[in-house]
Amino acid sequence: MARVEFADLERVVEAAVGSTLLEVCDAHGLPMETACGGFAACNSCRVRVIAGTLSPVEDVEEPFLDAPDQRLGCQARVVVDVTVRLDPGA
Ligand code: FES
Questions:
Q1: For residues 37-59, b (16+ Cβ closer than 10 Å) or e, as one string?
Q2: What is the pTM for the complete model shown?
Q3: How far does residue 10's CA lie from ligand 1's centre (Å)?
Q4: pLDDT digits (tens, 9 = 90+) for 9-44
C-alpha cells in the first residue's frame, strides 16, 4: 500500500501499489473526469505530480502531456507515496 494525496481535493487515501490513479479515485469517490472511459484517448483525467513519483510514462500518454510533471490518471500507477493535483486538459 502507498499513500496518495490529492492536494487540491484535500484528501489522502491508501492505495494498492499498481493501481492507476483513476482506480484510486473510483474506489474513494474522488472526482477524476474520464471522458474516454480510461483508454488514454482524452486528457480529462490528467494530473500534475507535486511530490513523489508514479510508474514510468506510457507511450500513449505522451500526446496529452504538456509538462514533465503531468500524467494521465488512467495510465499512471501508484508505486510509492505520491502527491498530485487534478489538472484536466481542455
Ligand atoms: S480517462 Fe481519458 S485519457 Fe484518461
A1: ebebebbbbbbbbeebebeeeee
A2: 0.96
A3: 22
A4: 999 999 999 999 999 999 999 999 999 999 999 999
Question: Which residue's alpha carbon is at the smallest distance from atom 3 of ligand 1?
Answer: 40
Residue 64 Cα: closest atom of ligand 1: 3
Please state, in angstroms and rounded to a whole number, the distance separating the CA atoms of residues 90 and 80. Answer: 29
Digit-coded pLDDT (tens) for 47-77: 999 999 999 999 999 999 999 999 999 999 9
72 Cβ closer than 6 Å to some ligand 1 atom: yes
Please name each of the domains of the chain with its CATH number.
Answer: 2-86 (3.10.20.30)
